Each structure stands twice: as structure tokens, then as C-alpha cells.
Amino acid sequence: MDELIQYGPDLAVGFLNNIKLSLVIAVFSLIVGTVLAAMRVSPTPVLRAAGTAYVNVVRNTPLTLVLAFCYLGLSDTLGLIFSTEDPLMNSFWLAVLGMSAYTAAFVCEALRSGINTVPLGQAEAARAIGLTFSQSITLVIFPQAFRAVIAPLGSVLIAMIKNTTVVAAAGYTVESSNTMRTIFDTTGTSIPIFLGIVVSFLILILPIGWYTGRLARKLAVAR
Amino acid sequence: MSSSVLFDTPGPRGRVRNHLITGISALVLLAALAWVLLKFNEKGQFDGKIWAPFTTQVVWVDFILPGLVGTLTAAALGAVFALLFGAVFGIARLSDHRWIRIPAAWIVELFRAIPLLLLIFFIWFLSPDLFGGGDYALFAIVLGLTLYNGSVLAEVVRAGINSIPKGQSEAAYAVGLRKGGVMRLILLPQGLTVMMPAVVSQLVVLLKDTALGYFIVYVDLLNMGFKTLPSVYPGTKLVSAIVIGVIYIIMAMALSAFATWLEKRSRRSRKTTAKPIEPPGAVAGLPSGQPTPDGAVVA
Q1: Which fold has domain A20-172?
Q2: Do B75 and B205 meet the contact criterion of CB atoms below 8 Å apart?
Q3: Of A26, B74, B124, B167, which is least packed with CB atoms within 10 Å of its CB?
Q4: Structure confidence by residue, pLDDT tens digits, B124-142
Q5: SS (H, E, C) B256-268
Q6: Which residues in chain B are contacts of A119 at CB distance < 8 A?
Q7: Is residue B274 classed as helix, strand or coil in its secondary structure?
Q8: Sign of dihedral through CA atoms B225, B231, B233, B238?
Q9: What is the longest distance spanned by two Cα atoms in chain A?
Q10: In chain B, where the domains are located
Q11: pLDDT tens figures, A105-162
């Protein structure tokens, strides 16, 4: 227990960095994922193909490789640098870049599936009663699609939060898992420290799962 | 596009507009591609001498193949143990006995929620303290993958068995089978057909997660291809990332394709009337057999 108290401040800083990363990545991956989903459902074959190719490539690559590629490939080799004076800041944004690119593929699939759950008859009925394209989208399709994506988006969000422990591959070493590793390296393995970090993640993650699950059930479209 | 929920079949004006958008988006995408290629060229990434090592036998035999063997070893061991773990805990969660059901549920829920890398680090650091010195990299990865993916698979097993129509087990009890017999002869054979696609999807996640061995210097494809190889052939970082990335993608896509095939077969199957279940964290309305967001926890 003593180690947990002694290293508490370090661990808190690490965990706060995980939360900070999660917030920034959530915003970017939602934006990019929405654009990708729009591409994949568009009537334009070129955009559909590009979206599909992106999603298939990124989704089948290990996240560790994506992050290491951003760090050693994009930054070191191609010279993509976000901050010259602060290497940690640079790594932070590289981690955001890599994880947003990775998470966006899953966000895209969640959103697209939401649209796919709306039965074709709904759209046909909307057209039949004379609704325009934008009316049928905003009044009939999106309200139904939105309800179907709450639970899957919750899962994507949870997976992303857990994945922020991998960002040391992008050189961002001041987050929970790497902090734990450094402490274990210096003072030896400590079960309380591990449990402390696990409990913090549980506190962060479980409510999201419960809440999105409850919301999804409450708003579910009865068909 | 007549089958789309979003768009009606376009008329003459709509067709012209679609062609216009197609043209513009093609140009934009080509411009983006050209910009990337120019950047690559600017930094000399198309130099023959950077790519040359990948045409030599020594790079493949000494670096990439041993790495690939390491990755596949971890994935195969992880898959076997995770399947065992999943089967045991999935059935335990369906037990009639509260003292089996509740602890099993706690274990499954806990290991699904722990970030996998934390778990692997912990096992890796704790093992020498418990079992004495030695190399525990493979052990840590396999145990981590087993506990995490096994927990996810336990949910798949539970969902698979729950999806079998109730009449099946009622009929089995009616003809005089006992609990064990109902599970072994009636529910599991039908459940297997239903859960196979989701199981293979989870194995894709498992295969991708073996790359976490990068952090604990396990000799896998990522370490050999991305750390060791560029240190022997300087300047090949980006290129080797692309090469091993392609290898990972091919492996994962082959497994995904297998899952999709299984799902089609399972839908046609006359063994059971139950529909294939969704992989955990996957979404309704899409064909399964695709990688799911790893670590999804749905309450």
C-alpha cells in the first residue's frame, strides 16, 4: 500500500494524461469517422472505394504498428513535427494523429451500420409521401440511425480509452502504463500500484458502458 | 444505388451531378496521393538502396520470418488457451449454481475491462518474482491474450448458447436427457455453428494484439521488422513499416475472410434455426467477420 501512496502523484499525472488524450482523440476520431462514413455511403463510387480501402487497411493493422509508424516513420523519417522545442508535445500530437486515424475507422463502421439498420421501406415510405432528400434524412432516417449507433459508439469509445495505454509506441511516455512500467523498473513489482491503475480505469470505463447500454435500450426503435 | 436507404435512383440531373462529384473527388484523391508520393521522394524513400534489402534472402530468412514465427506462435498459443478459457467461463456463467455463476461473471467482466497492455506488463514484471529468473515475454503475452480474449470469448459462448431457441433444451429435457447431456448433445453443437463467425472475428483481434509484444521485447514481427531490421539497415524505418504492415494486413484479412465465409455457411446451415450472433462490440446491420474495436465492453 505504501508504494501506491508514495507514487500516487506520478500515477495521477499519468492517468490524467490518458484522459486528456482520450478527450482529444474522441473529438478528432468522431469528425474523421463521420467524414469516412459519409464517403462510404455516398453515391460516388470513387469516394466509396477510397473509404472502404482506408477502413480495411487501418482496421487490420495493429495499433502499436500505426503509432510506431507515426513516431518513427512520419516524424523521424518524413519530418512531420508538431513541436520542435518539446518532444513530449510532439509525441502527444503524433499519438493523437495515430489513434484518431485508427479509431476513426471503427467510428465509421459504427455509423454506417446505424444507417444500414434502417429498413429500406422507411426510406421508400418517406419518398412516397413526398419528402425531399433532406427531409427524409433529417426526419426519418437519421433519428432511427442515431439510436442504433449509441451502443456501438460506446464500445468504440471504451476501446479507445483502453487503447490510450499503448501510446508509448508514439513516444508519449507520461501515461499510465509507461508510468507503471518505470516504477516497476525502479522499485520492483507492486500489486497495489497495478490494482490502483486498474481500478481507475474501471471507474472511467464501466459507467460509459452502463450509460450507453441503458440509453441504447431506452431509445431502441421497436420494430 | 436503388437499394440504398439514403438515395433514390438518380434522374438525369442527379446523374450529371454524381458524375461531377465523382470527377472532383477523383482529382482530390489523386492530388493527395501525389503529394504523399512527392514527400516520399523528397526524403529519398524511393531510393533503390532502401528497398534493396527486401529483395535479399537474408532479410527475410534472418529477420522477417523469425519475427513472423514469433507472432504466429504467440497468436496460436493465445488462441488455443483463450478458446479453452472462453468455453469454460462461458458455460460457467450459465451454471445453475450461484457460487459458480457469480465468480465467473466477475472474472469475465474484470478482465474485459483491464487495458491489455497493463495486464501484460504486470504479468511480465510479476513472473520473475514468483517463478525466479528467466524470459517471460512469451508467457506474459500468451497469458494476457488468454485472460482478455478468453473473457470476450466467454461472452460469445454465453450469447451463442442463449441464442438457441428454448424449445430445443425443453425438448431435450422432455426426452429424458440430463443437464450435462442437454449442454453436450443439444446446445453446444448448435451454439458452435452460431458462434463460430464471432469467435474468428475475435481471433483477428487476438492476432493484432500480439503486436503488444513490441513493448516487452518479445521477438515478434513488429520487433524484428521495425526495431531490429532498421538498426541493421539504416534508413529503412518507413519502408520496413510498410512491408510488415502489409504482412499484418494480409494475415488479418485472410482470417476476416474466413469468418465471413463461416458466417455465410452458418446462415445456410440446417443444424440450427438460430442466426449467427454478432461479435462482441460489433454492430448490427453489418456482416460480421470483421475486426471489432478491440476491448469493447458492452454492459
Answers
A1: MetI-like fold (1.10.3720)
A2: no
A3: B167
A4: 998 888 888 788 889 999 9
A5: HHHHHHHHHHHHH
A6: 5
A7: coil
A8: positive
A9: 71
A10: 1-42, 49-268
A11: 999 999 998 888 888 888 889 989 999 888 888 898 888 888 889 888 998 999 999 9
**B249 to chain A: which residues are within 8 Å by CB?**
56-57, 60-61
Q: Is A181–B299 a contact, with Cβ atoms under 8 angstroms apart? A: no
Amino acid sitting at position B83? L
Could you tell me the three cell numbers for A109?
463502421
Any B CB within 8 A of A168 CB: yes
**Contact assessment for residue A220 and residue B148, using Cβ atoms and an 8 Å cutoff:** no
Instruction: Say if domain B49-268 classifies as CATH 1.10.3720.10.
Output: yes
Of residues B189, B188, B169, the one with CA closest to residue B177: B169
Residue of A65, A144, A183 to mutate, testing the B interface (most B Cβ within 10 Å of its Cβ) = A65
Taking residue B189's Cβ as centre, other Cβ atoms within 10 Å add up to 12
pTM comes to 0.89
Contacts of A154 (CB under 8 A, 6+ apart): A208, A209, A211, A212, A213, A216, B298
